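Lab notebook, design round three. We kept the backbone fixed and only want residue identities now. Task for the bench partner: fill in a sequence for the structure below.
Input structure tokens:
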């Protein structure tokens, strides 16, 4: 597809940057940039399988959360510029390495290029394509991906606009993310399995933030009220690690407590939602990938 990068509106920032001349809020210009590609073992079991998920970590992000564990690429925009042809080759190389899927991490600002790369190689790809997103998406951009994405893996980070404005520079986060998740579910309305691996479907991730359990519970309520419970999975993440910008907001400069974690998990159980809950012992910086241009 041809997209006009001279006035970019791919994400909800709609900053209308001329990406042929400069970078937008997300940090991206009109070249694809990525920081790492390789087999990633730390996704949900339905994605990591035995061999690992074939993750491509794109540089830049349209959210810039103050607690981001991948700030080296999301904030500092570390990475290497590559062509559409090279991106397609990376997908094939990951498949040859035994990847259980192609996992596009923070892909929003490169969607038109990803579609071009998939057009070039998808007749050779036999593994699912995963769209691993912050959830801060425009429905219009997601509609471009219809027929290309097998598994949507969005975050649903905040219900409160006050929290999303404060910690992620996006007071309109829930307004966009909630509509985006409904569109993703519309495109992939059922869970389809290949043994223990997910072939198609929707997994919604939620990271509990310190002091924000009431907001987390509102998110779980919204999910339960808006999606049929057997048609998707939820992945509750407890690994919040206060390792970036942690002196700006002292109230989130700690790990979450057992009480916070259990109160959100209990609401998920009350609703009978399926999915994953991450062990609190995984709240460690050692799970943060080392971005070294490997595979790029
Ligand atoms: S993708 Fe980047 S350049 Fe485009 S609207 Fe969003 S922040 Fe702006």
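Proposed sequence:
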């Amino acid at each position: 597809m041809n997209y006009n990068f001279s006035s970019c509106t791919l994400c909800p920032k709609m900053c209308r940057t001329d990406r042929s001349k400069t970078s937008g809020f997300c940090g991206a210009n009109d070249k694809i940039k990525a920081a790492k590609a390789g087999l990633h073992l730390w996704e949900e079991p339905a994605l990591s399988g035995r061999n690992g998920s074939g993750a491509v970590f794109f540089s830049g992000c349209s959210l810039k959360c103050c607690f981001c564990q991948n700030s080296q690429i999301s904030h500092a925009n570390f990475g290497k510029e590559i062509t559409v042809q090279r991106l397609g080759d990376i997908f094939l190389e990951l498949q040859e390495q035994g990847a259980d899927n192609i996992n596009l991490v923070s892909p929003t600002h490169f969607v038109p290029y990803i579609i071009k790369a998939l057009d070039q190689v998808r007749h050779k790809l036999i593994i699912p394509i995963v769209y691993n997103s912050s959830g801060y998406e425009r429905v219009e951009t997601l509609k471009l991906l219809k027929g290309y994405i097998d598994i949507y893996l969005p975050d649903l980070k905040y219900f409160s606009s006050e929290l999303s404005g404060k910690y992620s520079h996006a007071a309109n986060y829930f307004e966009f993310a909630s509509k985006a998740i409904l569109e993703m579910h519309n495109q992939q309305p059922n869970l389809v399995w290949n043994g223990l691996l997910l072939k198609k479907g929707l997994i919604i991730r939620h990271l509990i933030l310190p002091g924000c359990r009431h907001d987390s519970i509102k998110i779980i309520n919204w999910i339960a009220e808006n999606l049929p419970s057997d048609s998707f999975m939820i992945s509750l993440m407890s690994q919040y690690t206060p390792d970036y910008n942690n002196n700006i907001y002292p109230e989130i400069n700690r790990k979450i407590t057992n009480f916070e974690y259990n109160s959100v998990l209990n609401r998920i159980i009350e609703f009978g939602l399926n999915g994953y809950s991450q062990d609190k012992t995984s709240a460690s910086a050692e799970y943060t990938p080392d971005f070294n241009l490997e595979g790029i």
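Keep this in mind before ordering anything: Residues 8-11, 13-15, 17, 19, 24-26, 28, 62, 109 surround iron/sulfur cluster (CB under 6 Å).
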